[in-house]
Structure formats: structure tokens, C-alpha cells
Specification:
By secondary structure, the chain is mainly α. About 45% of the residues lie in helices and about 10% in strands. It is rod-shaped, with a radius of gyration of 31 Å.
Length: about 110
């Protein structure tokens, strides 16, 4: 007869988990059956890694956009021309919209 090492519940030898407390049995360990929480933990780990990568990418895109805006602001303040980020046309520093494509110059 086999008993659960956690709660003492009487078990059949073929059980992989205790029906009372959910603990994996020696038969479950020998069969290589994983605990249910292991799959959940792995899923959270995968999701966290994907989130980290997405945030790194977003951070880099924000950094690049910030540098571009800074250059445009400095150009406007100095009275220089501003290039349209959409079509590349040169516009006067006080222009708010591109003279070639009509897109906002912000």
C-alpha cells in the first residue's frame, strides 16, 4: 500500500498525484509527470520574456523619436528649415505642415 508523503492519504500505486492534497507521488515523479504549477510558471516566464523584449523595442523607438523631435525643435528655434519626416521635403522653420505632402511637421 502507498500513502501520500504530504498528507498521509491512502493511494493506489498507479496514482501520479494525491487526490486529497494534489502532491505528486513517487509514481508521478518516476513517470516524469510535471506538477501543474510548473507549466503555469513556465507560461509566466515566457510571457515575461516577451514583454521584456517588447518594452526594450518600444524604449528604443521612443528614444529615436525623442531625438528626432529634439532636432526639429532646435532647427525651428534657430530659424533653420525643417525636413518632413514623411517625404523629406524642406520646409521653413515656422511651417506646421509639409508644403509637399501636407503631413504635420511635429
Amino acid at each position: 500500500m502507498v500513502y501520500c508523503s504530504n498528507c498521509g492519504q491512502k493511494l493506489e500505486e498507479s496514482f501520479y498525484f494525491c487526490p486529497k492534497c494534489g502532491r505528486r507521488t513517487q509514481a508521478g515523479t518516476a513517470a516524469g509527470v510535471g506538477e501543474p504549477w510548473e507549466a503555469l510558471r513556465e507560461g509566466f516566464h515566457t510571457a515575461a520574456e516577451e514583454m521584456r523584449k517588447a518594452l526594450e523595442k518600444a524604449s528604443e523607438e521612443i528614444r529615436k523619436a525623442s531625438l528626432e523631435v529634439r532636432k526639429e525643435v532646435q532647427a525651428r528655434m534657430s530659424g533653420k528649415s525643417v525636413s518632413c519626416s514623411n517625404c523629406g521635403a524642406v520646409n521653413s522653420a515656422e511651417s506646421k505642415f509639409c508644403v509637399k505632402c501636407g503631413k504635420p511637421l511635429s
